[in-house]
Write a structure and sequence with these properties.
Length: 159
Amino acid sequence: MGITGAYYMEKNNLEEILAGRVQGPRLDIDKTWSLIAGMFPDVPLVPIQEQYRVDSEVTEYGAFYLPAEMVAQIAVQVPGLRQPERLEERIDFEKWTSLQDMDVEALDEQSLILLAFPMTDDETYEELVEEYLLPHLQSLFDLFEEAARQQYGLVFFIF
């Protein structure tokens, strides 16, 4: 599975994005896409569900599309999701770190997605959350709010 997750803003240029004929991504959330997908299975901030999948030759790992209407629906939820206590409720690193010791064959799809985030032995829970996950998450919240204001869709690629 790919490591980097990147978002492109779309407005009447979906075909160009899917063909790779656009400039670099609007937002690259690197490997945190798997953690964010695990934190928000109910809100497709990382739209990796099958119903959002689109065909693209840009990446073999997956391309996903949220039309402007869906981006707007998600953006309405962002102010509530930004609240620190709401974020703390969703961070379940104990589950995530325990996945490293489990049999890959026994894991469900959501757990496999979380496993895509590599954690090294010298990284701590606090460092990952404060220095890595939360800054990417805040940038992603900003992207959804901006895209909704401008009535843009979002395309997400896994590289």
